[in-house]
Write a structure and sequence with these properties.
- By secondary structure, the chain is mainly alpha-helical.
- 92% of the residues lie in helices and 0% in strands.
- The chain contains three helices and no strands.
- α2 packs across α3.
- The radius of gyration is 29 Å and the shape is rod-shaped.
Length: 95
């Protein structure tokens, strides 16, 4: 009986660090899952994140993607301003 109790205690002692490590991994996974759910709620599903990763590889990381997006937005704003100016110019010329 005493030997059996000792064997069980040894097993518990061996498993305790493994259980602790698994608890730490679970906590890390829960954190990642929470971030994923936040992104998903913002519209970043798995397909969108995959496309973002591809763009990230093309443009040199997440910062490069954001820079490219901002550049594109600036170009769109410039194009819009040019179109407005051309419309005003055409209107003024026809008067």
């Amino acid at each position: 009986m005493e030997g059996s109790k000792k064997d069980l205690q040894e097993q518990v002692d061996q498993l305790t660090p493994k259980v602790d490590a698994l608890a730490g991994q679970e906590s890390a996974i829960q954190g990642v899952l929470a971030v994923y759910n936040q992104l998903k709620n913002l519209g970043y599903d798995e397909k969108t994140l995959t496309e973002l990763k591809k763009a990230s590889d093309t443009y040199g990381g997440a910062g490069g993607v954001l820079e490219a997006m901002n550049s594109y937005a600036c170009l769109q704003a410039i194009q819009s301003s040019i179109s407005e100016f051309e419309a005003k110019k055409a209107s003024a010329e026809s008067d």
